[in-house]
Specification:
Elements (H helix, E strand, L loop, with lengths): L2 H22 L8 H9 L6 H12 L4 H22 L9 E2 L2 E2 L1 H5 L1 H19 L9 H15 L4 H10 L7 H25 L5 H28 L2 H4 L5 H4 L5 H5 L1 H22 L5 H12 L3
Antiparallel strand pairs: 1-2
Amino acid sequence: MKSDDFEAWIALGQSTVERALEAWVPTRAPAGLGQAMRYGVLDGGKRLRPLLVLAASEAVHGHVEGALRAAVAVELIHAYSLVHDDMPCMDNDVLRRGKPTVHVQYGQAQAMLAGDAMQALAFDVLTPDGDAAVPAALQARLCALLARSAGHAGMAGGQAIDLASIGMALDEASLRDMHRRKTGALLQASVLMGAACGAPDAGAWQALANYGAAIGLAFQVVDDILDVTQASETLGKTAGKDEHHNKPTYVSLMGLEAARRHALELRDQAHTALAASGLAHAARLALLADKIVEREN
């Protein structure tokens, strides 16, 4: 696939998801809650997780409406997690996506409620009335995949480990387990939610799961690298905060160059998994793996 074609596909996917978010995230909710929700999720972010949903669905010729709703739902979960993660009781950050964080803009209580409401909205989006839009069985499967990746066994559990590990020296296995949950679970779920919109055989499903696991960890390794190599203006968030908070990272554990090599190894694992999938239309997933490792913000 030509680079220009891929970038055009990304732009189309991003705009499609943005329009859906504009339509489905309420403008009117009690006491200004809708404004805080929209501030936290609209007009920012790379929309990587929605793009993974759409690319995986396309690779298996999946249900189009189901894939769009899954893409929006996973972005809502991601956005809510950032809103809560930035709060003073967690990472206490003041900058996200190049603008003040939600709690800085709207206050801590409103930020907490906005995150709560976005989490609930994700499952509302996945369960439209009537089977005509999305079959009930697909609704249930998408809800299960998203819930498991976001809960105690996935993202929330990883965040708990992260907070409990401040100032500790984790070994590589422990660090990998933390990030497999905190970051990797939602990225892998994005791939599998897209796959669930079609009917891949067991071998293709496992290959996509392996791909998702590899890119999920690669994303975090690169995040750790960027945290020490890029400025806040480039990242759109506060650079160097992991070191400031004395958090264990791949860079602190491995060193910068070894972390860079590890990211490339994980990208190669993702490509190998796609090659084993037997899917003829997985080129966009391969290019997304490249983009994750080569990104600069």
